[in-house]
Write a structure and sequence with these properties.
Elements (H helix, E strand, L loop, with lengths): L12 H4 L24 H11 L3 H6 L24 H14 L4 E6 L15 E8 L2 H4 L10 H26 L4 E5 L8 H7 L4 E2 L5 E2 L7 E8 L13 H7 L2 H5 L10 E3 L2 E3 L4 H10 L5 H5 L7 H16 L2
Antiparallel strand pairs: 1-2, 2-6, 3-6, 4-5, 7-8
Bound molecules: iron/sulfur cluster (2 copies).
């Protein structure tokens, strides 16, 4: 039995997450939220305190990590720069890609992206992705002797934080409202569905995004804004179908938290990771990430090969 098990509340994390619920609803604030706003705050504190016993992890998760967390928020300019939505969309994407982001996409705000009890009024979400170095990711699970994977995760959360803060400040300087959202501590915005809608990829069986170029080696941040923008399209390239035939993550997951069948979660059939099974191992293994590192899409160069094999398979189907 894990030392984290004692910190579980009576209610299952899967119940809080809406497993088995047939109606769509906003997600409940849960893990990576302030302890007083969620049911699992004590467990979260136990996990983060444990991880911070590693000096290397503690340094990256400190308020002043080596690379920094980005600039302070500036005042919104009273002068609004007038351009049309297509121009602004190009400009913000170019700005983000020139300022520490590896991926950027735009989607219209959906109330279901906002956690229960929070309010977000901006009509647009700009999602940002940064990639994690595979050499370090592939050393998962991290340990106190070799925390490389946990350190790269923290380091890239910091880069994603800088990227969204640079972008938010740029938008504010153009006279529009903007708010930056950086991980790992989520606030109002559930970034994952927004990133899927903005073209980052498909949801994988391991509960994270599969991107057509970087696989599962990405971390997210976001900016919400009232700047006029144009939404991107969702990117569907066969990853969901691939997951139905692949078991690399579910077989590799030590506590068996990854289900091989989709499940009903808040009105949607989707891949789902059992929180109650995952988190004790995630806690002990300093953030684990085995599932991300074993995903064949994450191995550099392999995504292109998988896309080619999916294209061949599709071509045969239609012969
Ligand atoms: S993080 Fe680790 S324990 Fe959790 S689902 Fe992934 S492989 Fe399993
Ligand atoms: S390891 Fe396989 S099943 Fe798991 S998310 Fe990646 S492609 Fe899907």
């Amino acid at each position: 039995m894990s030392e984290f098990t004692d910190c579980f509340p009576e209610i299952s994390g899967n119940t809080v997450n809406g497993l088995g619920e047939s109606n769509p609803r906003k997600p409940s604030p849960f893990f990576w939220h302030p302890p007083h706003r969620q049911t699992h705050g004590k467990l979260q504190k136990k996990v983060t305190d444990y991880h911070r016993q590693s000096p290397a992890i503690r340094e990256e998760f400190s308020p002043t990590p080596p690379g920094g967390r980005g600039p302070k928020t500036i005042e919104q300019s009273p002068e609004v720069v007038d351009k049309d939505a297509a121009e602004w969309s190009d400009i913000v994407k170019h700005f983000a890609l020139s300022n520490e982001s590896d991926l950027v996409g735009i989607t219209a705000m959906d109330p279901l992206y906002v956690y229960e009890g929070y309010e977000v009024n901006e009509p647009w979400v700009i999602t940002i992705g940064v990639t994690m170095d595979y050499e370090e990711l592939s050393q998962a699970p991290p340990s106190f002797d070799n925390p490389a994977t946990a350190v790269v995760v923290a380091k890239e959360y910091n880069r994603a934080a800088r990227a969204c803060r640079y972008l938010a400040n740029y938008i504010l300087s153009q006279g529009y409202y903007a708010k930056a959202y950086q991980g790992p501590y989520a606030s109002a915005l559930n970034m994952l569905p927004a990133a899927l809608a903005s073209g980052f990829g498909e949801l994988g069986k391991h509960g994270s995004i599969i991107n057509r170029t970087y696989g599962s080696s990405i971390r997210l941040s976001a900016v919400t804004t009232d700047m006029p923008l144009i939404a991107d399209q969702q990117d569907e390239f066969g990853a969901d179908d691939y997951c139905t035939r692949c078991k690399a993550c579910s077989n590799a997951c030590p506590p068996g938290a990854i289900a091989d069948e989709k499940q009903l979660v808040r009105g949607e059939m989707k891949w789902y990771v059992d929180f109650d099974k995952c988190i004790p191992y995630f806690g002990e293994a300093l953030g684990c990430a085995i599932c991300l590192s074993r995903c064949p899409w994450s191995r550099p160069g392999n995504a292109t090969n998988i896309l080619k094999s999916l294209a061949k398979r599709n071509a045969k189907k239609h012969d």
